[in-house]
Amino acid sequence: MPSNKSVSDAQIFQFTNCRILRSHQLQREDLWVREGKILNPEKLFFDEKGSADIQLDCKDSIIAPGFIDVQINGGFGVDFSLATDDVQSGISLVSQKILSHGVTSFCPTLVTSPPAVYHKVLPQISIRNGGPHGAGILGAHLEGPFISKEKKGAHPEHYLSTFELGAFQDLLATYRHLDCVRIVTLAPEMKRSSEVIQELTRRGICVSLGHSVANLSQAEEAVRHGATFITHLFNAMLPFHHRDPGIVGLLTSDQIPSRRRVFYGMISDGIHTNPAALRIAHRAHPKGLVLVTDAIAGMGLAPGRHTLGQQVVEVDGLNTYIAGTRTLSGSVATMDSCVRHFLEATGCTVETALEAASLHPAQLLGIEHRKGTLNYDNDADFLLLDNSLHVRATYIAGERVWSQDTFTI
To answer: What family does this belong to (predicted)?
Structure first.
């Protein structure tokens, strides 16, 4: 039966012999795509009286939504926190390379830097759709400089800032450009931080709590003012204590406003978080867990010296340290490896592991109506994976943008 061209002249693709992640379950059914969107086959059959133009045998692959990385500092020799004259070229290189790891959208992340770096880099970051050129850019994640000196981690102390004088005006003076900004990580215990959180939230920017010595009540107040994310849980914050669990306590707090969910990032690389801690977080608040890579310029390259903003980083295997110290400084993990480690460490279901890298970050950013699921009418950004969750092929807007050399359909 030919397709009904009265509705659209675009070709209809039917992906067969696959298991689709839909409604939190892997389901044995076909995936239908037209004009870059997931198509409802019932409407096609019964309303349009149409059928597929092209059928593709997926060879028993798992089809899952494309991964979304909301914290990635660079990779493949590119450092997003360096003020070059051609930031776009570096972002484009990373966006192309991460397709092989299943990432179809991401937030380029800048660590604490002098104002001049933000003033030069941020105007060069453009929000854009993904495609053959690379993964889509959802907006920048600015991690600092409004963070705690005590929990600065790999951030250079002499560039840290506060809100004590002008609150939001201090932030504007530091960043200058907010049009491309999607997430800001700050320490909620800072004076006047509530004003800043409210204004960022009003502008549609996600506020994340991190690099902080905040107690639980300070963290809860930040959430009441609009904060919705925790930057790399357990890392760069007070350790859990039974009398005051600090920011970690948000995972089970009874003071979260109704219909509000707090999400939290986890670097599931086997280095930053012990598997037992990963299991504790997941079991305490499974629907809030967002896998992030926190990858640095050394991701995808041989061990050695690289940069993270204004500092030199040494990569030794999977460990990354500020040169001459034992201070962890990002990771060299890829998103697909984080998904596999999370699955193994927690014993969760395949569906849960995949949703932590797709559905949950989409929900965090409020874009689940477009990305992060294979629901009808959503963007056809998806992956074909084998049973061990290795990526076989990556699709953006229904177009294959990467595939294994040995995998053809």
So the answer is: Belongs to the metallo-dependent hydrolases superfamily. NagA family.
